[in-house]
Amino acid sequence: MTLEQLRIFVAVAEREHVTRAAADLNLTQSATSAAIAALEHRHAVKLFDRVGRRIALTDAGRLFLQEARAILTRAAAGEQVLSDLAGLKRGRLSFAASQTIGNYWLPQRLAAFRKRHPGVETPLVIGNTETVTAAIHDGLADIGLVEGEIDDPHLTQEVVAKDAMSIVVAPEHPWSARDVVTPEEFGETSWVLREPGSGTRQLLETVLRRVGQTIADLDIALELPANEAVRAAVEAGAGASLMSRLVVATALRSGVLLEIPVEIPPRRFLMLRHKERYVGRAAQAFRALLDLETLANASEHSAS
Question: Which of 6, 88, 299, 301 has a CA positioned 20 to 30 A from the CA of residue 24?
Answer without folding.
Answer: 88
